[in-house]
Each structure stands twice: as structure tokens, then as C-alpha cells.
Amino acid sequence: MIDRPPSARRHLPMLEIEPPGSKAERAAPTPDDRRLAQFRPEIRSLPCFYVWTLGCQMNRSDSEEMAGRLLAAGATEAATMEAADLVVINTCAIRELAETKVIGRQGYLQQLKAANPSLRVVLTGCAVRERDRDGLERRFPAVDLFLRPDEEPELVDRLGLASAQAPVGVVGATTMVGRTVVGVADHLAATRAAAVAGGAVQRSSAVSAWLPIIYGCDKTCTYCIVPFSRGPERSRPFDEIVEEARAIAAAGFREVTLLGQNVNSYGHDLPPDPRFGHVATERWAGRQLDLGSRPDLAELIRAVDGIRTADSAPAIPRLRFITSHPWDLSDRLIEAMAACPSLCESLHLPVQSGDDDVLRRLGRQYTTEHYLERLARIREAVPDITISTDVIVGFCGETEAQFERTLGFLETVRYDQVFAAAYSERPGTPATRLPDDVPAADKRRRLNALLALQEPIGLERNRAWLGRDVEVLVDTIARARAHDHDEPDTPAGEGSEQRGVRPGPGQVGLSGRTRGNKLVHFAGERDWIGRLVTIRVDHAGPYALRGQPLT
Ligand code: SAH
Ligand code: SF4
Ligand code: F3S
Q: Could you read off the pLDDT of 215-274 as tens digits, one per residue?
């Protein structure tokens, strides 16, 4: 018998007594783990909760999931913050103003707590970043519990609300990925799937549904806090997303929006799958990445569009996605946009600046030439497509001439809508190493100049719809509008189209969106909410259209 070296000796099969799963998931917390202080098991009774959501669609979607988990645990929803004994604040940190808005409410929350000693306040969302954890209690003194975006599925457990019968809570584990602490790789995706399967997503609309497809962001935009609050990109498994879309269709939703900070890079982190052997997308700009044999956004759009009714119409008539980063905008995606009837003719494609030098310092990884080339292709493939964008003015070192180039760029592209904001330095981002040297007054002036330039362009783009019949998905009954979130682009005149609507007897003022995402005001019946109606456009303003329903 040959005596092999010990390493080559075969071991007898052993019974696996440890359950499968990563070591990180099972590691016991050490006593110095500061998260231990964040468990509040003394909160026993089922609370009446109120969720205050700021920020983008991602936060709105996350709030729907948190509200759903709380309801599934037996809690009830309060109509106002004042009536609640659990307030969940889902924060945004994109600009300083978004954070100061919540900091400014701390005194009021403390008053509510004095009046109701059982009131608990939870702060979630992008203001909760691991590296700034120490400062959180000082900045948000009314808060009892802080949860990072990837910890949100733990909400119910951390409050001691999970019952043995209700599998709605889940205590996750964290790990370091690159520069950020995040949940274990598939933590959010897995808990999302469980929440959807268990009915624990409280969708705020019965007409339009958010569908998260990718969490986090791998881009390196120098000004942006998102990669620090939401961690690296993690795509949800393809089949789970299609399954959720199927459930959304079965529940009668008319519209679904695929969500992510950068939906165009969907799938690059998923394992290769023979079903997608034909996918051979090269990344278009920026860092090279092998995206072959993995599902991409184009495949996902085709699969969701492919969910059909018995008469082979798309089961969800309207499909959208947000947000697209120009560097991953592939020809495959453009082809899918042109080929899929449910995909709406509108695209939000943030450019940020019309000057190549500023773009480089913003870390955007594309040039204006690349952006314009992609845009020309999209406009050729999808006629009548509406295009919107984001612009930052007054970034570090932006000269007057560079700003003027941005204005020239907007004149060339002629966007339907521009969301513009003054640069706001965010702690910990790479741009903090550059001097924030454009004076506040200049930032304001540039912002106003930009909005003044865009207003007639928006009007011209809207006038192109005069006299045309548009399909509108009715989603709102007119009322005084209250905006919680930090939308810097809502000028005073925006409600004027709504005010011009004159409902007849028994009618109400309604509004909805065209496939091109244009806001349309008109008069109609209350029960039109959720329906697709045809409106003949007879008035166009810079921010909205008005018209008459065709019976
Ligand atoms: N992932 C999306 C954007 C998310 S943030 C994308 O890349 O398009 C939404 C917008 O906020 C950005 O497009 C940018 O215009 C703006 N923004 C982000 N950080 C900012 C900052 N520090 N100051 C001002 N605006 C900022
Ligand atoms: Fe921020 Fe850039 Fe990522 Fe958008 S792509 S979330 S702007 S880092
Ligand atoms: Fe969204 Fe604000 Fe976070 S824009 S991703 S909620 S910083």
C-alpha cells in the first residue's frame, strides 16, 4: 500500500451538522459590537406606526416594505405622526438640506415624546452611515434606534415585535465590501423575496408599483453620498424579479417601475447562466467589465414585457425604469426599449454637466460626446421619447464659462424636464478634498439662470403635444399638494395647469401621466383613478398639459 501524504488522504464522509450559510451570518456578536446597544426588546405592545419618507423612489419602495413588515407583525398604521407611537423616518442625504430637514424636527419629536412617553422614533435611510454612526445620536437626539438602509429588514426584530408565528422579521449580518459595511451579499434580495411572498409589502398605490431590481451603487461620482449609504451594487436574482412582476400584474397594477441607483448595470454581479449565453454586452464607457452570459436590463425588460394576458397584450401596460447611468447604456437596452410595447417612451438620463472638464471632476466617466451619441441612438430608436435629466450647478471649481457650456448643452439637447440642484458638499465623499469654492450666491444665480433657460424649452416640448390625443393613466384627484421630499425643481408656477381645470357637476379635477411621463390635468369622474383614458391636449404649460377626455 502506498502511503500518501496526509493532505492527499481521503476523509470519510462526515455528517454535516452545521446548517449551510456563510460564517458571517452565524458569527455571534462580540460584546463590543455597538449594534447590541441598538436592540430594544422592552418595546412589547404592538404599536401604531407612522412612516415619514424623504428622498427618492428607492426610499419610497423601502418604506413600503417596512410598513408591510410592521402590518404583518400586527402593528397598525397611524394617519399622522402625532397619532403614532412608533415613528419611522426614512431619510435622504443627497444634499445637506435633506438632512437638516429631519434634524430640524428633532425638537418637535422630543415634545411628542414628552407627551407620549411610549413613543419610539426609528431613523433609517441614507443619513445612517456606518462611518458617521458616532455623530448620529448628537445630530438626531430624539431617535431611539438607527438602521442603515441594508438593516431595514431588521426593523421588526429590533423593536421586539416579531412573533414566533409571523416570519416577517429577520436579523441580518453585515460584512465589509470595499469601503462600506453592508448586509451579507444577498441579504436585501432574500428578505425582499420573503416579504413579497409573505405579502409584507404595503404598496402605497394600487395603480403603480415600484420594483427594486438592484441595490447600492458601484459608481464613483465624486460628489455623491449614495455609495456610502447604500453600499456596492447587488442585483436581485432575475427569476425573483420576474416573479414579483407577475404578482404585480395579477394584482391588477397598470404600471411598474424597475428601480435602482443605476439600473443599467443590472446583472453584472449575478452568476453566469446558460439561459443568457447570448448576452455579450460590453460596458460602454468607464471601467471595463465582463457582462457576458448574465441577465442584463434588456433581458429583464423583455421578460417583464413578455408577461401577457390571454389576448397577448402586456399584462402590465406600462413599464418604466429609473435611474440610468449613461456609461452602461447599451445598444441591447436601446433595442429592447424599441421592441417592447409596454416600455414607456420616456427616459431619465442624468448628465450632471455639459462641460467635459467638470464631468471628469464629477467622476462621471463619460464625455458630452458619448452622452450625445447615446441620446441620438435612443431618439432614433424610440420616436417621440421624452428625455429628462439631472444637473448639478456650482461644483468645485466650476467656472462661469463651464457653466455656460452646460446651458449650451441644455439648449442643444432640449430636455423635456431638468432637475437641477446646487452642489452640496457631502461628508466623506471624494469631492470634499476639492475646495467648495463657488460662492453660494453664484450657485443660486446659476441655478436660476438654468431654470430660466429651461422653462421656455419645457414649454416648447409640451406645446408639441397640443391638439394630440394622449393616453393618460389617471392617478390623482386634485387637492392641495404637500411635498415632503427635497425636490429642488418645483417652481411656483407648476400648479397653474391644475388650477385651469373646471370640473362640471359631479366631476372632480384629475391628473395622470402620459406614457412620456408628462403630467396632464383634466376633469372627470372619481372612479377613473387607475384607468387609462384618452385626453385631447388643448393647453400646454412649461410643467404640465391640460385637456379634455374623449368619451
Ligand atoms: N443614481 C442616480 C442619481 C441619484 S441622486 C444617477 O446617477 O443618476 C439624484 C441626483 O441628485 C443626482 O443625479 C445629482 O444630480 C444630485 N446630487 C447627488 N449628489 C449631489 C450633491 N452632493 N449636491 C447636489 N446634488 C447632488
Ligand atoms: Fe451617486 Fe453616481 Fe451612483 Fe448616481 S451613479 S447614485 S450619482 S454615485
Ligand atoms: Fe435616494 Fe436620497 Fe438615498 S436620493 S438613495 S434617499 S440619499
A: 999 998 999 999 999 988 999 999 999 999 999 999 999 999 999 999 999 998 999 999
Q: Can you give the pLDDT at residue 284? A: 60
- Ligand 3 atom with the shortest distance to the CA of 225: 7
User: Do 1-29+39-180 and 205-344 share a fold?
Assistant: no
* CATH of span 348-364+371-464: 3.30.750.200
Domain limits of the chain? 1-29+39-180, 205-344, 348-364+371-464, 469-549
Q: pTM of this prediction?
A: 0.86
CATH hierarchy code of domain 1-29+39-180: 3.40.50.12160
Residue 132: predicted pLDDT: 80
133 or 229, higher pLDDT:
229
Q: CA–CA separation, 40 vs 158, rounded Å?
A: 6
**Ligand 2, closest atom to CA 323?**
4
> What are the backbone dihedrals phi and psi of residue 151, each rounded to the nearest 5 degrees, phi first?
-95, -5
Write out pLDDT tens, residues 134-191.
Answer: 899 999 999 999 999 988 888 988 888 865 444 444 544 455 545 554 444 346 777 8
Q: Which of residues 435 and 194 earns the better pLDDT score?
A: 435
Mutating to test ligand 1, I would choose from 362, 390, 434, 450 the residue with most ligand atoms within 8 A of its C-beta, which is 390
Ligand 3 centroid from CA 319, angstroms: 22
- Tell me the CA end-to-end span of the chain in Å, nearest whole number: 92
Which is nearest to 334 in space by CA: 298, 366, 368, 307? 298
CATH topology assigned to domain 205-344: Transcription Regulator spoIIAA (3.30.750)
3-state secondary structure 49-84: EEEEECCCHHHHHHHHHHHHHHHHCCCEECCCCCCC
Mean pLDDT value across the chain: 86
Question: CB of 70 closer than 6 A to ligand 2?
Answer: no
Going from the Cα of 189 to the center of ligand 1, the distance in angstroms, rounded, reads 24
